[in-house]
Write a structure and sequence with these properties.
Elements lengths: L15 H36 L8 H13 L3 H8 L1 H21 L3 H15 L2 H11 L6 H29 L4 H4 L1 H16 L13 H20 L9 H21 L15 H31 L4 H8 L2 H15 L5 H19 L8 H16 L2 H8 L5 H42 L7 H12 L4 H39 L9 H8 L2 H9 L3
């Protein structure tokens, strides 16, 4: 996969104020990117209500960004060689800023989804190029410090995002969660261009796999739309869903055949022949899809059925990044000394514990009970990405690291988007089942039901109003039970991933690949944010 930036023509490291301001500008752009994802999660119910769609349809704001971002990843290497890394990064930041402004102005959900897709697409090159430019700014001996600064930036954003997003949504228009990117993006682009324009990389016109890219867009795009719209169109009883499924299947099959035979594939599927890469990518993608899906589900449940405000939901999500900030540097430092499979196993166990705790929530759960698993979740995030990236890239020759990292990120981001859609669909389906079961208990033979009706009648409510109140309570219980089903099922799948990761070969990463693993901090940030 050509998802990595082209190699720099050697430049001397920056010094003094230039290095400081370069670091600030690159970090600000990355912070803006990650913050934007975590801000949106707690605002979904408010966005959906304002634009006249259901809160579940509001999740398209998340999935459209993720799919577009995943599609852009394979193009980063080609684009950086075609236009130069500095030009591409600066343009990506400016377009991201423009897309943020258009997101805030969106008059309807269709426009917002289109602008979020644009935002996700132009954000694709930002993360890898920011890393590359940052490392070029420091001498090799200070590379560790540069990555530490990078990690702190990308891990602090998910802590700030939910809190800031919740406050903005409760106190002003939700559009400001996007507008706040405008001054940050303009300043970051201006400073980056001012400092790095004389350090531009050489450009070259390279062939691009147009056929493969077209098939990729068709396969992933149609499948995502099918997952997003399937529930409201009654799945395969709809001609639109059947058509989307057929197109996705045919495009996917042709995409695999084409990529395995093309000289310049947009995605190097031959990497999947390597056991560690296959096992690591599968575990990373499945676990990430579970995690992101549940992280989107939690604030929806809290705001729709538990009476939480956006600010309170943000406070629930913010602690995810705290333990990750503290523990990620320790994990990165010790990943060479410990079997990465052991560290990944510990992460899966911690995720399972967190989700199992959530599977016992009820409508009387207090603030501390709901927040405690979120604190613990940060431990799992810290032990998850660095070891799994080490396993995925384990044993690959240096010339394949960039392609492998790009393909791994592609599958992870797509997994997150698919996981969000599948989780919300299952949540609605399980709620419908529980609603039907609970409704059967409301009959004239039920002493509790008749007692409740009597109490409501005594309060002056009509029979229709009494039944509406009881139905609202049934809805609350049904969606709580559905949430418990999703949390419990996700915990079980995390436990099943434990034996899967041990199919990878035992391998101790060399220093170079540990640095590549540490560069996966943006993935940890995405997970804490619940974004891409």
């Amino acid at each position: 996969m050509s998802g990595a930036p082209a190699a720099f023509k050697p430049h001397a490291p920056l010094e003094g104020a230039a290095r400081m301001w370069g670091t600030v500008a690159l970090s600000a752009a990355t912070f803006m990117n990650v913050l934007d994802s975590s801000i949106a999660n707690v605002s979904l119910p408010a966005i959906a209500g304002d634009l006249g769609v259901s809160p579940n349809q509001g999740t398209w704001v998340v999935t459209s960004f993720g799919v577009a971002n995943a599609i852009a990843v394979p193009l980063t290497g080609w684009l950086s060689q075609r236009f130069g890394q500095v030009r591409l990064f600066t343009l990506s930041v400016l377009l991201f800023t423009l897309a943020s402004w258009l997101c805030g102005l969106a008059p309807n959900m269709a426009t917002l989804i289109a602008m979020r897709a644009l935002q996700g697409f132009v954000a694709g090159p930002m993360m890898p190029l920011a890393q590359t430019l940052l490392l070029s700014s420091y001498p090799p001996a200070m590379a560790g410090m540069a990555m530490a600064l990078w990690a702190m930036t990308t891990l602090v954003a998910p802590v700030m995002g939910p809190l800031l997003g919740g406050w903005i949504t409760d106190h002003t228009h939700w559009g400001w969660i996007f507008y706040i990117n405008i001054p940050v993006g303009i300043l970051a682009a201006f400073v980056t261009w001012s400092i790095y324009q004389k350090r531009e990389t050489q450009r070259a016109k390279l062939p691009i796999d147009t056929v493969g890219l077209t098939l990729l867009v068709l396969a992933v795009g149609c499948l995502q739309i099918m997952l997003d719209r399937g529930k409201e169109l009654d799945w395969f009883h709809s001609g639109e869903i059947i058509t989307l499924g057929i197109v996705a299947a045919i495009a996917g099959a042709f995409f695999i055949a084409w990529e395995l035979t093309d000289k310049h594939p947009v995605v190097d599927l031959r990497l999947l022949k390597r056991r560690n890469f296959l096992v690591g990518s599968v575990c990373l993608s499945v676990a990430y899809s579970l995690f992101i899906g549940n992280l989107v589900l939690l604030p929806l449940w809290l705001q729709q059925f538990m009476g939480y405000t956006s600010t309170q939901a943000g406070e629930m999500l913010a602690p995810v990044g705290l333990f990750a900030i503290l523990l990620s540097p320790i994990v990165g430092k010790n990943v060479q000394k410990t079997d990465p499979r052991m560290l990944a196993t510990f992460a899966f166990i911690m995720f399972a514990v967190v989700l199992q705790m959530r599977s016992h929530f009820n409508t009387q759960a207090d603030f501390f009970t709901i927040m405690l698993p979120t604190f613990i979740q940060g431990i799992a995030v810290a032990f998850f990405f660095i070891p799994l990236t080490s396993i995925t890239l384990g044993g690959l020759p240096p010339q394949q690291i960039a392609s492998a990292s790009g393909l791994s990120n592609f599958t992870r981001i797509v997994g997150g988007a698919f996981g969000t859609s599948i989780t919300i669909t299952l949540w609605q389906d399980r709620a419908a089942v529980h609603h039907a079961e609970l409704t059967e208990l409301v009959n004239r033979g039920s002493q509790a039901a008749m007692g409740a009706m009597g109490n409501l009648d005594a309060m002056g409510l009509s029979p229709e109003q009494s039944l509406a109140n009881i139905n609202r309570l049934i809805d609350q219980q049904a969606f709580m039970l559905a949430s418990n089903d999703i949390f419990g099922g996700s915990a079980l799948i995390f436990m099943l991933l434990i034996p899967t990761i041990w199919f990878a070969e035992r391998w101790r990463p060399p220093v170079a690949q540990v640095q590549a693993a540490k560069a996966s901090a943006p993935a940890a940030a995405d997970a804490a944010a619940g974004a891409h």
